[in-house]
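1st attempt posting a full record on here, be nice pls
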Amino acid sequence: MNFFSRIKKDIRVIFERDPAAKSVLEVVLCYSGLHAIWLHRISHALFTRGWIVSARLVSNFCRFLTGIEIHPGATIGDGLFIDHGTGIVIGETAELGKNVTLYQGVTLGGTGKEKGKRHPTIGNNVVVATGAKVLGSFKVGDHAKIGAGSVVLKEVPPHATVVGIPGRVVVLHGKRVHNEDEYREAVAELCRARGYDEHDPNVRAELMEEIDVDLNHDILPDPDREMIEVALRQIQRLERRVNELETELAAARAEISNEAMRTSSIEVALTNKVDLTKRSVEHER
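the predicted structure (as C-alpha cells):
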C-alpha cells in the first residue's frame, strides 16, 4: 500500500467507526489518534534504521501533543483506530494486526524486566475497550473483544470476549452482530457515499475486512451477576425442598400422634378389661 492510499485508509476507518466524524478536514485537524498514528510511522521508520534517539524524540513529541505513548519499536498494522486515545500506552515489542480499535486508557504492556518479546500481539479486527490492560508476551486472537477495565494476563482465543480482573473468557465464538448480507449492504453504502468502485473486488474485500469489527463493547456478559442468579435459583430450590420436608415431617408427626392415641386407647381398654376380669374372678371366689 502506497503512502497516499494508507493516508486515505486511515481517514476512512475513522468515518467507519466513529459516528462523531463530520468532515475530512475535522478528522485531519482534530483527531489525536490519527496524529499519533502518523507520528508513530515516522518514529518507527527512524527506529528501524537505528536512529534510536531521534525516534524517541518524535515519540515523546507525540505523547506531549496527543497524550498517546507509542514506543517507536511497536509494529502497527493498517486500519488502526484510536478513539480519543488519552492515556494509551503501547510497548516496544507490541504488535497490532489490521483494523484494531483501541479506546482511551488502554495499555499494551509487559509484566517485568524480561528481554526480547515482552508485549502482547494483537490480532486482526480486535476491540480493546476503555481502560483495559493487556500485559505480557501472548497473543490476543482475531476478532476478540476485551471489556472495559479488564486486566488480561494470558492468551485470548480468536472470537472470544474477555472481562474482569484478571481477565477471563466469558464468551467464545459468540454470534456476530451482523450477517454477511448486512455487511455487503454496508460496503455498498460506503462505496456510494465515498465514491469508491463497488464492483472492484479488491475494494469490496478491503472494506468488508475493515467494517468487520464489533464495536459493541458495552454489550458484555456479567459473570458475577450470572453466578448470583445461579446461587439464588439454588437457594430457591433448597427452600422449596425444605418446605416439602417440613410438610412431610408435620404429616409424619401427626400420624405418629394419632397412632399413639390409638395405642393409648387400646391399652386403656385392655387395662379396664383386665380389671373387670380380675374383679369377676374375685367375686366368684
